């Protein structure tokens, strides 16, 4: 990240607040995508998210990025797979 990169948007996930960088590359970052995915998960009925729907809703062209996020969240014990294409809070 460069010293000249602007920060003007505030993102919230749960009790955490973070200033989000502005710019084309920053808008595609895995960290920002994770925050957006967590918001989708928080808003989901019964805490269950279909990964195909989440990928469409987040406008993700490569589902691999969603799988990367879910694998890490599953690894740290925050979510679990409910079926092949859906996850839920643990």
Automatic annotation (TrEMBL):
<protein>
    <submittedName>
        <fullName>E2F_TDP domain-containing protein</fullName>
    </submittedName>
</protein>
<dbReference type="Pfam" id="PF02319">
    <property type="entry name" value="WHD_E2F_TDP"/>
</dbReference>
<keyword id="KW-0805">Transcription regulation</keyword>
<dbReference type="InterPro" id="IPR036388">
    <property type="entry name" value="WH-like_DNA-bd_sf"/>
</dbReference>
<keyword id="KW-0539">Nucleus</keyword>
<dbReference type="InterPro" id="IPR003316">
    <property type="entry name" value="E2F_WHTH_DNA-bd_dom"/>
</dbReference>
<dbReference type="InterPro" id="IPR036390">
    <property type="entry name" value="WH_DNA-bd_sf"/>
</dbReference>
<dbReference type="InterPro" id="IPR015633">
    <property type="entry name" value="E2F"/>
</dbReference>
<keyword id="KW-0238">DNA-binding</keyword>
<keyword id="KW-0804">Transcription</keyword>
<dbReference type="GO" id="GO:0000978">
    <property type="term" value="F:RNA polymerase II cis-regulatory region sequence-specific DNA binding"/>
</dbReference>
<feature type="domain" description="E2F/DP family winged-helix DNA-binding">
    <location>
        <begin position="25"/>
        <end position="90"/>
    </location>
</feature>
<dbReference type="GO" id="GO:0000981">
    <property type="term" value="F:DNA-binding transcription factor activity, RNA polymerase II-specific"/>
</dbReference>
<comment type="similarity">
    <text>Belongs to the E2F/DP family.</text>
</comment>
<dbReference type="GO" id="GO:0090575">
    <property type="term" value="C:RNA polymerase II transcription regulator complex"/>
</dbReference>
